[in-house]
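Ticket #4471: structure output looks truncated?

Reporter: J.K.
Steps to reproduce: submitted the chain below (313 residues) through the standard prediction queue, then opened the result file.
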Amino acid sequence: MTGLRKSYCSLWIRLVEFKVLRVFFVLRSVRVQSAARERPSSRWRFRMVEPTGVYSIMARSHKFLSICGVAGAALIACTTAAVADGYEYEGKAMAAPEEGRKFTYSFSLMGTSDYVFRGISQTENDPTIQGAFDIGYGIFYAGVWGSGIDFEAAYLDDNVEIDYYAGIKPTWHGAEFDFGIIYYWYPGDTLDLFELKAGVSGSLIDKLSTGATVYYNPNVNGDYGVYEGTVGYEFHEIGGITPSIDALIGYFDFYDNGGVDFTYWNAGLALAVGNITFDFRYWDTDASNAGCFGVLPSTCDERFVFSAGVSVP
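Returned output as attached by the reporter:
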């Protein structure tokens, strides 16, 4: 097929060369005939050509335009054949237009063997269901997240926690910043609170990500701060499964307002299969039994947590 296209192009090119030469000699003869019919004038320095010469030139011009059309067709045919054979013009490419802001959204649903928040079980070591809905536009984001909880050991009747959050995620020199606000709502109780958030994350090397985040609660009855650092690495896909590992360490600081400061940490393995993720995680804290917020001491102990979730899209 490649040889046939090349022969086709050669035939077109030969035909164009023949037509061009023919028009050249015809125009030259017309020029000579027109010069013979010129009428000299002492006042005007331009040539008067007889009508027959004009019609002849128009006819030849029409033929010349026809030749141009043939040449253009030949060029298009040859170019098409070349592209079809894998040979493309390597001139300067036009820069692709910048992608504008896009509206994004996602849903997620997850089941977990234990809802652990900053090292402390929120379900008295029992399983629960969690879900979220997120939207984004450019650097702006917002969302809502919910989970079942159980604070019966603390004499609280809360069964649901709903978190609302919003913020911006600008980037600078490869680093992504996160400035936002989180509101924790416990329907039917007075535990509601909000936190200000500031974080930064990025990749030092390919597939290795690190991050640091600060949370601050300006509660008039006792403010506090939380400081977290994360590191994670994503491996290459293996048989349709993308494994990754990550770890987190955090410090809860009550700013000397009566609370007991403590450190918490976790490390885990996640296996992503399409939009489904399986997470195996180890949690622990150095919180003493007395400092475990008045709930069951076992809620602050070390534990293994398994979670499975799906996200759309």
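Triage note (M.O.): checked the attachment and the full token line is present. Helices lie at 2-36, 51-84.
Status: closed, working as intended.
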